[in-house]
Amino acid sequence: MHLVRYLSPVDGRPVPGVRTVDAVAPLPGVNSFAELLRLSLEELRAEVDKAGETLPVAGLTFLPPLDGRGEVWCAGVTYERSRGARMEESSEQSVYDKVYTADRPELFQKAPAWRVVVDGEPVGIRSDSGHDVPEPELAVVANSHGEIVGFTVCNDMSSRSIEGVNPLYVPQAKLFAGGCALASGIRPVWEVADPKKLGIDLVIRRGGDEVFSGTTSTEKLVRELQDLIDVLFLPNDFPDGVILATGTGIVPELDFALAEGDVITITIDEVGTLTNTVAAGREPFGFLATDNLEGIR
Fold first, then answer.
1. What structural domains and CATH numbers belong to the chain?
2. Contact 183, 223 (CB under 8 A)
3. Which of 126, 173, 262, 290 has the fewest CB atoms nearer than 10 Å to its CB?
């Protein structure tokens, strides 16, 4: 089961629902994910149990599982592989070595809800970078009370060339059009036995050929998930919930860079799959602003 948002086939408005393999059931009386994520975990689970009559998945358009004032944040350098990759590319290697073992995690804002792309939509690479990679990550979904309510798949797109020049360029290396993708569904926390024992797989295809693949496990994540959420909530309110991507344990070697047209597929056991095709520059993502203004995202 996954919590999803989709466009109503009747009037085109976004509808929160519960998806099984080939069917979706709307949540009666719930108009947005923001409403769901204002509830306590117990209350949210009760609302899910009220799901209405199902309709077929075929032909439906699914939206990112976040809306309203929801935000996506990221944690950095939480896997040993990430620490090593950041040190390889950076002119300031000690910064990444220190943050990996520090009490305080690296946290940064990735995108507001309206900037997020979903499974099947394009992801972006910067036109001024030249060396971009995907970062496959388990994303933790927290409600406004700081409770973990579910998990999804995140692709935290990153410019290695920009961050490598200077760690202070991290915002430019991380925040750009098409830079944040989420799977269309949230797997409820009560359906995931142990989120610290999930396999993560990444495959990149170019012209139909596999040009990179990698695998890791959340067992290698050095931070505890609730600890990351607690640090995030300490100085901030998230009235419509927040999604926190927890870092990557898969980073291609320095001789690999994404190209326009590459197809990126990320799969996390028990959570879901996310597939996107790479587009370059800001122009392919103008639809995000337009759709937001028209109220269809």
1. 2-63 (no CATH), 71-285 (3.90.850.10)
2. no
3. 290
Phi, psi of 6 (to 5 degrees): -145, 160
SS3 call for 297: coil
Nearest to 254 by CA among 128, 29, 88: 88
Taking only the tens place, the pLDDT of each residue in 114-129 is: 999 999 999 999 999 9
What distance in Å separates the CA atoms of residue 15 and residue 62, rounded to the nearest whole number? Answer: 9
What six digits make up the tokens of 11? 């009037």
Calculate ∠ Cα 231-188-195, nearest 5°.
Answer: 60
DSSP run (H or E) holding 98? helix 93-101
Cα separation of the two ends of the chain: 22
Two tokens at 151? Answer: 């998990």
SS3 of 290, please? helix
* pTM exceeds 0.90 for this model: yes
Rounded to whole angstroms, how far apart are CA atoms 248 and 144? 25
Helix (H, G, I), strand (E, B) or coil at 221: coil
Task: Please write the tens of the pLDDT for every residue from 199-237.
Answer: 999 999 999 999 999 999 999 999 999 999 999 999 999
Structure tokens at 61: 């358009």
Q: For residue 151, give the nearest of 98, 215, 118, 198 by alpha carbon.
A: 198
